[in-house]
Write a structure and sequence with these properties.
The complex is a heterodimer of chains A (376) and B (328).
Chain A (H helix, E strand, L loop, with lengths): L1 H4 L4 H12 L2 H10 L2 H18 L1 H4 L20 E4 L2 E14 L6 E24 L3 E10 L18 H37 L1 H16 L2 H10 L7 H32 L2 H8 L4 H38 L10 H6 L4 H6 L5 H23 L6
Antiparallel strand pairs in A: 1-2, 2-3, 3-4
Helix pairs in contact in A: 3-14, 4-6, 4-14, 6-7, 6-9, 6-11, 8-9, 9-11, 10-11, 11-14
Chain B lengths: L1 H27 L5 H11 L6 H11 L5 H15 L4 E2 L4 E2 H36 L4 H15 L2 H14 L20 H38 L2 H8 L4 H7 L1 H5 L1 H7 L2 H7 L2 H7 L4 H10 L3 H29 L1 H4 L2
Antiparallel strand pairs in B: 1-2
Classes of the chains: A alpha+beta (376), B mainly alpha (328).
Membrane topology (chain A): Multi-pass membrane protein
Keywords (chain A): Membrane, Transmembrane, Transmembrane helix, Transport
Subcellular location (chain A): Cell membrane
Chain lengths: 376, 328
């Protein structure tokens, strides 16, 4: 019986050997790939991050340019067939009418004008981070008066989609920068706390408890309200991210500290200590790499908190202020009921916030599950 | 147990002192003071304060004293006389302002807390006992969506639906005609048509997270031997689940109930601002914007004190509920 069974699972053996010799990161990746939602979220976030980085290219119009004759225009519908004939993606022109009774401006499609959407279109010129000048855009329509507004326009006739892309740059980077600040603080204090223990641990724990005992939103509001209105938007932006990080780091420090307690008594740490390695070397070379995956997962889960914080503060008018464009600032336009019922598309930055936060949560969940490849 | 409570209570005193100082510093942070803001406000309406007048106002409000002196005056008045100071913006004592709005705030917050628990506990238990069923997936999606949606966005969307499709009057707690009317059945009905939006917003926001916690805890507990023992003794599923693992899984609820104390007091600031609710939250925002120092400072102080007390209450409840914590 045993003789017959032996040669059969040769393929399985190869797979097993492959598994045993795989490097930790390959194992993490293999487990991560099984979490479909996390993989989809990862792609979504990569695309979003790229569009945010190249916002000038992706956005068809200048996010600050007023169009007096296109205020609160609804999202432009994209058609493929014109009068039963295949044309490819195109939009109809927009006809502007004023209601005789209410004097309200309404827009209707002008079925005569067919404007094919052109990809890699040369539109208004922009300067890309001051590095080079270009006028290349991902898409646009070739007409001086007509536009393609994927998400409509706001009450000054600015293209909401273009503003959303530029806002993504500010909001996402604020989240990332905030997490980096929180990461540095949390990693430093958490690892000191977890490695040394004793009274140092006690003191840092008290500090963390104290920070956590201050209610988040009023503290954010208090600190954000302290920023002078006249300050440069860039400085305000940095300070806001610092304020967000001031609270976020305690959670990260907790994760790091817990991990340190778990790893501190492992044999290989003892071996390193007996071999005469310095404390700094033991922490940075032996213990931190063992926790990298956990830290990455915790970081990913911390980003949505920052994004929600920035959005809420800016929405209240305490965070970033126009002319800076962030998703929270964009949502200020949707603050009153009348503008929402007239132009529901002004809520689209809110949808973007929800999708992004969800994606980060799913990605973080997937990473956390995959973080310990030897777990099962 | 008494020793435990005493030790915990003693530990929170330095925290309280430190917090009171920080609240005061935060309020002092903005450049300029109330007189600067007041003068700017007057300028907008076309009036001007001379430098001498400004200096006189500062002298009168004691804004020229060193910060520590101002802090000392502020905190001793609060501790010994229950006097939170005078709101320069509203021209009324801070305590009156807060008391006026506290009733409604507490009512809304406690109602929404009850709703949160009523939703979260049964749904969490169901999701865990029927893991990977259709409804479990549905609730999971709901949980993630709820966690990802900012409260104010949900409030905006609900207001829009109520306004545009249900044609009801939204925002605030009463329609204008009932605002100052004496209490009557109509007024109560009017209140209810307004109240559902804040309740739904606050309850879903809280429940989304708690469902996940409840589900995870229940899953941890369901696999344990004592559950199997209970089944083996012939108890029905309902008896087993609700009598044993649910009680253990409720631990985090108890440890967070104290945290809801400050939330009860402030309500949800952002939701309240969006929905134009006459609760304490918008008052705080206004106070911060106008640098109404005593009002904002008292607010942050009260909230922080509530948080510390809430944590204390939670710790004591947990120790009472779970002996393992008491002796750890």
């Amino acid at each position: 019986m045993t003789d017959q069974a032996l040669p059969a699972p040769a393929a399985a053996d190869a797979a097993k050997e492959n598994l045993y010799t795989a490097r930790p990161w390959q194992l993490v990746w293999r487990r991560f790939r099984k979490h479909v939602l996390a993989v989809v979220s990862l792609w979504f976030l990569i695309i979003l991050a790229l569009s945010a980085l190249f916002a000038e290219f992706v956005a068809p119009y200048d996010p600050f340019k007023f169009e007096r004759l296109r205020t609160l225009a609804p999202p432009t519908a994209i058609h493929i067939f014109h009068e039963g004939r295949f044309v490819g993606p195109f939009v109809y022109g927009l006809e502007r009418e004023r209601d005789a009774d209410t004097a309200r401006v309404t827009f209707t499609e002008d079925r005569e004008t067919v404007l094919p959407i052109q990809f890699l279109y040369r539109g208004h010129s922009y300067s890309f981070f001051g590095l080079f000048q270009s006028d290349l855009h991902l898409f646009g329509v070739d007409d001086r008066r007509e536009q393609v507004n994927l998400l409509g326009t706001d009450n000054l006739g600015r293209d909401v989609f273009s503003r959303l892309m530029h806002g993504a740059r500010v909001t996402l980077s604020a989240g990332l920068v905030g997490v980096i600040f929180a990461f540095v603080l949390g990693l430093a204090l958490g690892s000191i706390s977890g490695y040394f223990g004793g009274w140092i641990d006690g003191a840092i724990q008290r500090l963390m408890e104290f920070i956590r005992s201050i209610p988040t939103i009023p503290l954010w509001m208090g600190l954000a309200a302290a920023l002078p209105i006249a300050w440069d938007p860039i400085i305000v932006y940095v300070i806001i991210t610092l304020i967000l990080a001031l609270i976020g780091w305690t959670h990260l420090a907790r994760v790091v500290r817990g991990q340190f307690f778990a790893i501190r008594n492992e044999d290989y740490v003892l071996a390193a200590r007996l071999a005469g390695a310095s404390e700094y070397r033991i922490i940075t070379r032996h213990m931190l790499p063992a926790m990298t995956s956990y830290i990455i997962a915790a970081l990913t889960l911390a980003v949505p908190e920052m994004i929600l914080g920035e959005t809420a503060l800016s929405f209240l008018g305490l965070g970033l202020r126009p002319p800076v464009v962030s998703w929270g600032v964009l949502l200020q336009d949707a603050q009153n009921l009348r503008s929402i019922s007239l132009a529901p598309w002004l809520l689209s930055p809110g949808v973007a916030v929800v999708l992004t936060v969800l994606a980060f949560n799913f990605l973080g969940d997937g990473l956390r599950d995959a973080a310990d490849p030897y777990g099962q | 147990m008494t020793a435990f409570i005493f030790r915990r209570a003693l530990l929170s005193i330095p925290t309280l002192i430190f917090i009171s100082f920080i609240s005061f510093v935060i309020i002092q942070l903005p450049p300029g003071d109330f007189v600067t803001a007041y003068a700017a406000q007057l300028r907008q309406s076309g009036e001007y304060l001379s430098a001498a007048q400004e200096a006189m106002l500062r002298e009168q409000f004691g804004l020229n004293d060193p910060m520590l002196v101002q802090y000392w005056r502020w905190i001793t008045n609060i501790v010994f006389r229950g006097d939170f100071g005078f709101s320069l913006e509203w021209n009324a004592p801070v305590s009156t302002l807060i008391w006026d709005r506290l009733g409604l705030t507490l009512a809304i917050s406690s109602l929404s807390l009850v709703f949160t628990w009523l939703i979260a506990i049964p749904v969490g238990v169901y999701s865990a006992t029927r893991q990977y069923s259709f409804f479990d997936h549905l609730f999971t999606i709901f949980g993630f969506l709820g966690k990802g949606t900012p409260d104010f966005l949900l409030a905006l969307v609900l207001m829009w639906i109520g306004f545009a499709y249900l044609h009801i009057d939204v925002g605030g707690l009463f329609s204008p005609q009932y605002q100052n009317a004496p209490w009557s059945l109509d007024k109560v009905i009017n209140l209810l048509t307004h109240l559902w939006i804040p309740l739904v917003v606050l309850a879903t926001g809280g429940a989304a997270g708690l469902i996940r916690v409840m589900r995870a805890n229940m899953l941890d507990e369901l696999g344990k031997p004592y559950v199997e023992t209970a089944y083996a003794q012939g108890l029905s599923e309902r008896q087993v689940v609700w009598n044993y693992p649910v009680r253990v899984a409720l631990n985090p609820f108890i440890s967070t109930v104290g945290w809801s104390l400050p939330a009860l007091f402030s309500g949800d600031v952002i939701t309240a601002v969006v929905l134009n609710l006459p609760t304490t939250g918008p008052l705080l925002l206004k106070a911060l914007q106008t640098q109404d120092m005593y009002l904002a400072g008292s607010f942050i102080l009260i909230l922080s004190v509530f948080t510390v007390i809430g944590t204390l209450v939670s710790d004591i409840l947990l120790a009472w509920f779970d002996p393992r914590i008491r002796y750890a």
